[in-house]
């Protein structure tokens, strides 16, 4: 979802009443970011509190390329990473993930191996349908075993956009909440639904109900799900003891046009390190702790949820590694603003840095000229000379500087011969130098692909007659075009 997809963020059709209500009763965080402009690295950062360059969710096959976890990927979240549910599990919390995992589909990478107690969802995107010969359809898991496959047992009609998946995910969430409340069991629920990711889908009751077409239908259904979850938390008497965060893994996919969402006033979208690719619509809700109707301009990141949740649960954040996430408690409860930078990475390259209201681009590019000429445009209708480049441009000796308060769309460069540039840039360069001096990249997990590791025979496939014969192993370097 994009920053501009919610009514409270300015979407004119205002079709997200539950999320808008959540913001009115909680805190809006308009300066909140993902740790990457693409799904898998962003989720790895959320779970580990660490930049993808540290936790290994990047590729070195080519410079500054986005990479993720299609089902042919060999790698996944390393055992050496300490994930949020692992820490919470040791503190007595019961954790469940509902929806997309996306941190590796081989057995050693799945959620229940990394701290989650329950899972209902899939290891990969809901792409397909596939023929189960050259490529298997994506499995859906309930716990440690698969219970079916997308397009076979869990239907998605690509012609009409109809699918009941979101309703299934809502029911799973409500049941989980009831069970934990009955047991008086502390819990962590990661509701990772994916209806707004192409191919976009919605259930029959929501199809055709939005002014925004199928994408709007999907947003309305997700909004309804959030409303039901918040209502259930209230009914169970848990509202005053529960912190709820809504956010997104990356910006709206502008290349998908009307199926890709809105990034509001920001430049470009998913896959890019411009504001539209990484600034996320974020709301925090906790009655009695977070005052209603407040706005925080704290620079926040999905990685901060790692540190914040552990701190609030009474745990200790790991000290044997660099944790990039900060504790947001002072911002959430006391409206404090902590001065910290935001780093924008694309693959193995630090592309940009935000400090206070300033953003400096050290590298720029959207996507290749060849790809653009074949119809893939990451910045449709947005051409900024020297900024939205179709080749990788190195600005490390003379970074491009913008003021995001005066210019949220990154349209008007602050020239290097101005006093403002001369005052600001040395401070940003010092931040970057310190960051790179202390950077120890993790082992890249997204370099190798192999058709034999795809979802041919997941655990439990034999019980439902869904096992497929894998091909012989033939590992090769993945090709990442973005």
UniProtKB/TrEMBL annotation:
GO terms for molecular function: metal ion binding; N-acetylgalactosamine-6-sulfatase activity. Keywords: Calcium, Disulfide bond, Glycoprotein, Hydrolase, Lysosome, Metal-binding, Signal. Its cofactor is Ca(2+). It is an enzyme of class 3 (hydrolase). The keyword Glycoprotein applies. Its EC number is 3.1.6.4. The keyword Signal applies. It holds the Pfam family Sulfatase_C. It is found in: Lysosome. It comes from the Eukaryota. Residues 1-314 form the Sulfatase N-terminal domain. GO terms for cellular component: lysosome. It catalyses: Hydrolysis of the 6-sulfate groups of the N-acetyl-D-galactosamine 6-sulfate units of chondroitin sulfate and of the D-galactose 6-sulfate units of keratan sulfate. Homodimer. Belongs to the sulfatase family. This is N-acetylgalactosamine-6-sulfatase.
